[in-house]
Amino acid sequence: MSSDDGCRLWTDQIGHGPALVLCHGGPGLWDYLDDVAGLLAAAARTIRWDQRGCGRSQRHGPYTVGRFVADLDAVRDRAAGPRMAMLGHSWGAHLALQYAIEHPDRVSRLVYVSGTGIDPERGWHPDYKRNLRLRLGNHLELWEALSNRARTPAEDREWAVLQWSADFADHSTALRYAQRMATPWLGINYDCNRAITTEVNQKLSTNDFVTRCQSLDVPVLIVDGTEDIRPRWAVDSLEQALPNVQRATLAGAGHLPWVEDPDGFRQAVVGFLTADDGATPDRVHRELPDPR
Predict the structure, then answer these.
(1) Which of 87, 81, 54 is nearest to 68 (CA)?
(2) I need a labelling partner for 115 at 20 to 30 A (CA). Which of 92, 245, 256, 276 fits?
(3) Nearest residue to 167 via CA among 86, 245, 233, 224
(4) Which residues, in sequence order, are CB contacts of 14 under 8 Å at separation 6+?
(5) Cα(220)–Cα(245) distance, integer angstroms
(6) Which helix (H) or strand (E) holds 4?
């Protein structure tokens, strides 16, 4: 499909039921949420898409949050209908939240998975960088060597697999899961990553984002794993700001909780998506047990 400025966007959908649009992370990556779509296919018609400049979508700027919000609205209009539920992961969680703030009348529910919160005062990056190095363990030396030089496409994939392996709690399966994320390898758009990351950081530190979250009249479910190397306290600011929020914390899961605890993830998300509007409780916080 095409956005309103003619940029071609790759999309895919499966399942039956109310529309649920998935927003992948990055920025600069491609959709890797096929497993999420499969888990939720019995409860929703899941719509996946590659953000502009990423994966199978056209390499076409500009790379701005506003432009990505407009692209998401085009996906909603052409594939989902007047109103949709959304699920965003990592950077995609922030994108979905930004969209809900700007277009609350077009959003029925929002699932915010493994985001990094809205706290402009206490940055999460130092903790993330320290945890990343610890989680890499024996792979740290190779990851550092690849980080500090110009990389071929094959080396770029190798570097990404090593870094993504730190997003999984179980060391015995982490590399295999990361390899799967990198297959097929569609290449990281670093220009997109830099532009979007810079803009998000600037907006969180200068605008009234917290105030806008406090007035968001959309039910939100926050889902995260206890073993995510991005500190979970960073999301507390968002949980405290939202007026209608639930939070499901999956014990023993990392940054992609649906991979390491698919049953717990499906239980939390399907329960939230299928609950009656009048039965959606405010400020429910529960921790689901480690399936291992």
Answers:
(1) 54
(2) 276
(3) 224
(4) 37, 38, 41, 45, 46
(5) 5
(6) none
Q: What is the pLDDT of residue 120?
A: 74
pLDDT < 50: residue spans in the chain:
278-284, 291-292
Domains delineated in the chain = 11-123+189-288 (3.40.50.1820), 125-181 (no CATH)
Exposure letters 239-251 (e unless 16+ CB within 10 A, then b): bebbeebbbbbbb
Which pLDDT does position 278 carry in this prediction? 45
Token pair, residue 236, equals 């507390």
> For every residue of 12-42, which 3-state class applies, written as one string?
EEECCCCEEEEECCCCCCCCCCHHHHHHHCC
153 beta partners: none
How is residue 15 written in tokens?
């399942």
Would you say the C-alpha torsion 50, 53, 58, 62 has a positive or negative sign? positive
Q: Are 250 and 223 in contact (CB under 8 A)?
A: yes
Question: What integer pLDDT is reported at residue 229 of this predicted model?
Answer: 98
Q: How many whole angstroms separate alpha carbon 46 and alpha carbon 19?
A: 6
Sequence-separated (6 or more) residues with CB below 8 Å from residue 124:
116, 117, 230, 231, 234
pLDDT at 122: 78
Output the pLDDT for position 205: 82
**Per-residue confidence (pLDDT) for residue 277, from 0 to 100:** 65
Alpha-helix residue ranges (DSSP H) falling in the chain: 34-40, 65-75, 91-102, 125-136, 140-147, 153-165, 171-181, 190-206, 209-214, 236-241, 257-260, 262-274
